[in-house]
Amino acid sequence: MTVWTLSAQEGTGGTRVAAALAAAAEVPLLDREALSVLAHELDPAFPQLDELAERFGRFTMLSLSAALSVGSAEAFQEVELRHKLPDLGRAVLGEAARSSCVIYVPAAFAALSDHPSAIHVRLCAPLECRRWVSQR
Q1: Dihedrals φ, ψ of 39, to 5°?
Q2: How many domains is the chain built from?
Q3: In Å, how far are 48, 60, 102, 114 from 110, measured between CA atoms?
Q4: CB-hemisphere CA count at 13 Å for 67?
Q5: Full domain range(s) for residue 97
Q6: CA 83, 84, 85: angle at the middle one, nearest 5?
């Protein structure tokens, strides 16, 4: 059983490379959306991916501190979620790594650094490629 973790800079075609690797190895590709579904299965209270992105954009640390100081229930829920995320992330990746797969999310290599059959890949692009992608 092999688990590949793949992270990529813009301009490297990371999505395409991850899909090609998964197809060539005949294993599932687990990206943010697939892992979000798995997280929701492990913890039904876990927000859906679009809701999670909205929530993290809503509170900066300064606004979260201010909301906590006035006793905002929403702010307390946000802090609880932020404390829960690292453990849930490790649980999700641990569950995903129970069988061969390609995991295409940033920092998956860190959560699976001790996995005995993990291969970690980081795709880097020359500065010219990253500039071109960011200008599009």
Answers
A1: -60, -40
A2: 1
A3: 23, 25, 15, 9
A4: 15
A5: 3-135
A6: 100
Residue with structure tokens 């829920």? 77
- Tens digit of pLDDT for each residue in 38-88? 888 888 877 776 676 666 665 565 565 666 666 777 767 777 777 777 888
DSSP string, 45-111: TSPPHHHHHHHHHH--HHHHHHHHHTT-HHHHHHHHHHHHHHHHHHHHHHHHTTS-EEEESTTHHHH
Per the listing, tokens 């641990």 go with 94
Q: Can you tell me whether residue 11 is helix, strand or coil?
A: coil
Read off the pTM: 0.73
Q: How far apart are CA 77 and CA 69, in angstroms?
A: 14
CATH code of the domain in which 68 resides: 3.40.50
Q: How far is CA 118 from CA 8, 13, 44, 101, 111, in A?
A: 17, 21, 28, 10, 11
